[in-house]
Structure formats: structure tokens, C-alpha cells
């Protein structure tokens, strides 16, 4: 085989050539462009490529009409692919013929193969005839179905769409948003009597308890569905809101609410509180036995004043002591009475209680927070979840159960159902709505003077 001759390529002149002139036919950015290239001696005009975003590039073919470099490269690659394909086909045919010769069989002509294929196609049953019909699968009810959303599965509770249902809102317990919504829906029979007609503040955590948490006291510019709005109750602010139905409760939790805090008054008589709340907040170094003793001392003092009180866990570190009242005293009267009780406890048992806010005053003591009793202040609702790691729940207890408690967050989403079943059989706050008692300025003065 004769050696392949190499084509000699002459040296390319480095003489600078004048650049061609471009004349745009369209000038709107983002459109297709086409340009005419100025002619020059010994050159051939070629149609330029259509480009986007104002990139104006054109190529001129050199003398002789040779195609541009990009087109040349594409043609070269195509020719190589065709040669490789023909080479592989010829190589496979030769090997097949040799194999047939060794085994004594001849190749089947192409026409015969085509006839055989046609015959097989006529005699073989179709794929659709061989496939068995698919059994009908019953669909789940709409309320139980879920679909994949952008941030997780989208679920439904009571026919209300729950977005990001699988998002974990508490890493410590593995609680998902859907778990929280389902709990609030189950606990609605016990929660709604505590929520109905009371202004409520929301603690919302769009990124879970470990993310940013914010406190919402008033309605937003885009109201939450089913929530009742009350104009004019808080002048100079957006309407206050109440949660009066199960649907409203589910909608509120769907909007990333974890905690619910209620006022000490109802909307019908917003200027007259109907309860006083004492939040016993301990130094974290104290044991729970000190909390039990503090709650019992508080109950005893209130009993000496002729007031019946009720206890619940806070869902956090402490306990809440609630004193129901017949509406009559003002907000100032309620605050003065609560402050007098806290100061009396602090003076009577100075090693156990403090009535002064601040961690430096609470060292190895229990802070009696009486500031829950001013207008606009609120307290975590009974049976409400707290936005803290572990997601404890504030649960009412009977006084004879206090000694058996183990902490303010004893009940969580993991064990609350057993407690709800117990409450259904025996409500520890069954007497709450039947209590008729009140406070007065004389009672407050007697406490301030040191009498009981």
C-alpha cells in the first residue's frame, strides 16, 4: 500500500488584514441578529450565525470558499463517525461468516430474514393481548391522602391542607409539623374551653423550635382563616384575635404556631379580669421537690385569704397557680393583689422565694412572676404545647397529684394521650367553672400590712 501523501501547507502570512465592517439589521437586545459583512478582495461572503443577547460574532470564509472552522470541525467529526460505523459493520460480518463456516451453517440471506420476521409478527400474539388487565386499586379517602410538596409532604387534618407536614420542628423529640397539628385537633375538646372568647397571642416558629421564634399579639395583615377578629379592643393596634372553633385551631397551627397564650379576661368584658395567675419560675439548679413545696405554700397562703386555687404544669421549668375570679376587679386591682401575694411569699420565706425579676435575684430561689396580671399580658394555655426542645405541654393537675409529678415538662406529645384519657375520666379542674370568689382592695391592703 502506497504511503499517504501529506499535503504541504504554506506558511500563513502574518500581514495584518483590515477587519470587516458589520452592519446590524436589528438592534433589539434578546432578538436574533443577522449581519452583512463588508466585502474585501479575494474573499467570499458567508451568512453569519444567528446569536442571542447582543453577541455579535461573524466569520468570513477565506479565499477559495472554505467553510468556517466550526463547520469544518463538525463535518470532520461526522466523517470519522461514518467511517468507524462502516468499519465495525464490516468487521462483524467477517467474523460471523468465519463462525458459520466452522460450524457448517450458512448465513441466512437478508430477504429470508425479513420474511421470517414478517411471519413471526403475524403468528405471535400482540403484547397488549398477553398483558393481564391491571387490578383496580381502591384510592384512600381524600382526608388521608398526601402528596409531595416543595418542603415535604402535604397532608390534611379535618379537611384543612397542612403544608410542610413532614418538616421536623423539634430535633430533640423528632416531632413533625403534622404531629403537632394532629395533637391540637385531638385535644380540641379540652383546649377550646380554655381558648374560647379569650384574646390569644401566638408563638410562631416557621423554622422549628431551634430557629427564629416570634410572638404575635394581634391579627396580621393577611388574617388566618376561621380566626375571629375583634376590632377596637386594643386601640392603636390591629384587631385582637380569638380561637373559638376546632377549624380555627387547626388553621392557626398550620401557620407554624406552636404556643398559645391567653389573656386573663374575655372579649365581652375586656377591662375586667376573671382570673389571677402566679407563674412559679425556679432557678434551674433547684430540684423539683423545691417546686412542689413552693406550690403547696402558695396554695396555703391563698387558702388563708379564702381563695381556692388550681395548679397546672407550665410545660417548661415550673408551675402555674391559677385563681378564678368573679369579674369585678380592675386590671390595676388584679396586679396590686398579685404583687402583694408575691411579696408576702418572698418576705415570709426569703430563702425560697423572690418577687424581683432577674437571674441575679433568682439564684437558688423561685421567682413568683405576678406580671402576668397586667392588661395585655398572657399565660400559656392549659393543654398547650411549648416551643422548647422536647415540646412539653402545660397540663392541669389535681392538688393531690402534685407530689407525684416529676417536672414542668412531664407531659409531652409522646405521652399526652394517656393523660388525656385520664382527664376524660376524672377532670382535675372540674370545679373551676363553679368557683365564685373575688378580690378587693381591702384584701390587698391586708396583705401589704402583713396580715392574713
Automatic annotation (TrEMBL):
<feature type="region of interest" description="Disordered">
    <location>
        <begin position="1"/>
        <end position="23"/>
    </location>
</feature>
<feature type="compositionally biased region" description="Basic residues">
    <location>
        <begin position="1"/>
        <end position="18"/>
    </location>
</feature>
<dbReference type="InterPro" id="IPR033651">
    <property type="entry name" value="PaeLigD_Pol-like"/>
</dbReference>
<dbReference type="InterPro" id="IPR014145">
    <property type="entry name" value="LigD_pol_dom"/>
</dbReference>
<protein>
    <recommendedName>
        <fullName>DNA ligase D polymerase domain-containing protein</fullName>
    </recommendedName>
</protein>
<feature type="compositionally biased region" description="Low complexity">
    <location>
        <begin position="60"/>
        <end position="70"/>
    </location>
</feature>
<feature type="domain" description="DNA ligase D polymerase">
    <location>
        <begin position="177"/>
        <end position="429"/>
    </location>
</feature>
<feature type="region of interest" description="Disordered">
    <location>
        <begin position="60"/>
        <end position="154"/>
    </location>
</feature>
<dbReference type="Pfam" id="PF21686">
    <property type="entry name" value="LigD_Prim-Pol"/>
</dbReference>
<dbReference type="InterPro" id="IPR052171">
    <property type="entry name" value="NHEJ_LigD"/>
</dbReference>
<feature type="compositionally biased region" description="Low complexity">
    <location>
        <begin position="101"/>
        <end position="141"/>
    </location>
</feature>
